Amino acid sequence: MDRRELARALSSADSIDAPAREFEPWRVLGVTGPPGVGKSCLVDRIVSRWLEQGERVAILAVDPSSPITGGALLGDRMRMASVDTGDNVFFRSIATRNVPGGLPTRLNRMVDLLVHEGWTRIIIETVGSGQSEIRIVSVADRLILVEGPARGDIIQAEKAGVLELADLIVVNKSDLPGADRVAEEIHLSLNLSDGESAPVILCSAETGFGIDEMIAAINNLPNARGPAIARARERLLATHQEYLLSHPQYADVLKGLSEGRLSIEEALSILQRG
Ligand SMILES: Nc1nc2c(ncn2[C@@H]2O[C@H](COP(=O)(O)OP(=O)(O)O)[C@@H](O)[C@H]2O)c(=O)[nH]1
Ligand SMILES: [Mg+2]
After folding, report:
1. Scanning 152, 163, 225, 252, which has its CA 20 to 30 A from the CA of 25?
2. What is the structure's pLDDT at 214?
3. Are residues 40 and 157 in the same domain?
């Protein structure tokens, strides 16, 4: 499949017959975090390194505002300086509006297609950190949360439960004041929760500080297991929700509910029937 065919296939809603990805070595890296924190710059660093390692890397940038070929694509492309040429990189911007069947399902299909076509690494970049973004990142096998020197962002991420989902937390912009303090605070708050906590890495996409350490941490994320429980849960809920929303009787059931003809239990039992 050449690039044009791939682009066309990604746009179509057709699903392909793909085996479950869950227990393969992981391929799909989610990168999330507040706008402007440096996700695209870090992705650029990661992509460069993976290309050196002989990987074929596809980047799916989920942008809430732009249509698929809108201005944000160009802006991000210019910022992602390494992603302009080469047969081993594919970049695609995806709008979140008007996606029939829901974005997580759509992304899952795209990922299946890219894996099928031999792309060895897929990066999904998306803005955190509301509930719908969590659903988006549940498509990824592994997840990086990017934060910056502003403390307010972390509180947001904590609230939305993204901290709990992340395999690795990167505090970017270490060249600016406050980043080291934020890294320390995240570290402390993670240690308060149960279980194994994700590593926290301080770095700068601008100066290159900590980038080697970040890449090593990414490359060392465990291979032979499925997604974390929290992410598996989001994936399950997203799939379930889309299943209900795409049921042929969905509109009728909503009407029945609104007119008091159906109880919630009855509505669910209709929508859960094949
Ligand atoms: N000072 C500093 N600025 C950075 C760093 N990383 C990214 N930036 C700047 O932050 C802005 C947003 O970066 P971008 O990667 O587009 O953020 P995104 O919205 O999270 O994808 C750009 O102007 C970058 O040049 C960093 O490590 N230090
Ligand atoms: Mg970006």
Report:
1. 163
2. 97
3. yes
